[in-house]
Design goal:
Strand order of the largest sheet: 1-2
Number of helices: 7
Order of helices and strands: HHHHEEHHEEEHE
Strand content: 5-15%
Radius of gyration: 20 Å
Oligomer: single chain
Largest sheet: 2 strands, antiparallel
Distance between the termini: 54 Å
Structural class: alpha+beta
């Protein structure tokens, strides 16, 4: 009796991790978000080996997440800027930071905090764009997108579609 070969689940998380799912890639994106756009500054701020960071930056540029812009002709030097796809990763970086602040900070607290509107700390929180509700362990539930699989049956659409956004908060239970 032979068993069928395991098929990986088609998944946007897996596709995304193929591009940004490596430490140095996410740290490079973090640095650009924080305004450090030059290679030497990214090496200094991330601690990444130069050749590794260069490879990750090439991947991010080829994936359309970053773009290179010249800032010097002699010698040729480039800065990295976020594309619209790269800017859409900001909630990912901020929610990773919020998780780390909550579960990994030491007694002195997180090493970096984000300020919002100059008067309070920004703490990322995932909420449903449609209803404003927070996810729970039982909801949202995964459901195959029938349109993507070719099935023309009922699918989420219109007002039923829930998206994720990041909301600022002054949560007392976050570190």
């Amino acid at each position: 009796m032979t068993s069928a070969a395991a098929q990986p689940r088609p998944c946007s998380v897996a596709r995304t991790l193929d591009i940004v799912g490596e430490k140095w890639a996410l740290l490079a994106i973090r640095e650009v978000f924080l305004g450090n756009r030059r290679f030497d500054e990214m090496v200094r701020r991330t601690g990444a080996p130069r050749d590794t960071l260069a490879a990750r930056l090439r991947t991010l540029v080829s994936a359309g997440i970053l773009e290179r812009r010249p800032y010097s002709d002699h010698p040729a030097r480039f800065e990295y800027h976020l594309t619209p796809a790269g800017r859409d990763l900001q909630p990912v970086i901020m929610t990773l930071m919020a998780w780390g602040d909550r579960y990994l900070a030491d007694a002195q607290g997180p090493p970096l905090v984000l300020e919002h509107n100059g008067d309070h700390r920004f703490i990322a929180k995932v909420v449903c764009e449609h209803c404003g509700g927070e996810p729970t362990p039982r909801d949202p539930r995964p459901r195959a997108n029938k349109a993507a699989t070719g099935d023309r049956g009922t699918d989420l659409g219109g007002d039923q579609r829930a998206a994720v956004k990041v909301a600022a908060g002054n949560s007392s239970d976050s570190a």
